[in-house]
Amino acid sequence: MRWELLFGDLEAQLHEATAQELERRINELARVEASQLTLAEALRGALGTQLSIAAANGTAFHGMLLKVEPEWLLLGEGNRQVLLPLAKVLHVHGLGTLRAKSASRIPYTLAAALRLLARNRSAVVLELDSPRPAVVRGVLDQVGADYVQLMQLADGVGRSPDNRQGSLVLPLRQLVSIASATDNEF
Questions:
Q1: Is the Cα torsion angle 124, 87, 110, 184 positive or negative in sign?
Q2: C-alpha span between 100 and 181 (Å, rounded)
Q3: Is the separation of the CB atoms in 75 and 95 below 8 Å?
Q4: Hey, which of 82-91, 123-132, 145-154 has the most confident mean pLDDT?
Q5: From CA 149, how far away is CA 145, in angstroms rounded?
Q6: CB under 8 Å to 92, separation ≥6 — which residues?
Q7: Within a 10 A sphere around the Cβ of 89, how many other Cβ atoms?
Q8: Strands, E assignment, 56-133
Q9: How far is CA 134 from CA 115, 125, 126, 137, in A?
Q10: Closest by CA position to 55, among listed 134, 155, 163
Q11: Residue 49: which residues within 8 A CB-CB, separation 6 or more?
Q12: Global pTM?
């Protein structure tokens, strides 16, 4: 009978050690998997929810998260949409723990999204990364690989030769936000 108790005790210890090793491995795999997640995947898990986002220049944005791509996110703020480069996001409030991979295998870059606005001749408001608040309004004329060219317009007026206030070339890395009307496609 003592042998049965001894073998039973050894078997229980082996089972406990095996369970602990399995739990340790599962926890390590979870940590490895979490370490490979991107900000875009964390944001994608919150699609359709209200978020507050602070940009690198201190501007705060509040609205519904509409779309997330590897380089940018789209936020619905009332009667406008705001495209924010992920590189300019300082922090996000209201993000849960759900994560989601992209359904598309083709990344939709920031430049590609801006080309849609340029093609549609949409009026935009660009907020720039600078020590003092800097905002420019106009229509995107051209979107290159790493820059945009904006035809500046007087506030509240349409695009015509009389309303032009000059042309401005801006590096994409300087854009903090790109705001446009809600009827634009992204």
A1: negative
A2: 28
A3: no
A4: 82-91
A5: 11
A6: 43, 51, 52, 53, 54
A7: 18
A8: 60-68, 72-77, 80-85, 89-93, 123-128
A9: 22, 10, 8, 10
A10: 134
A11: 64, 65, 94, 96
A12: 0.78
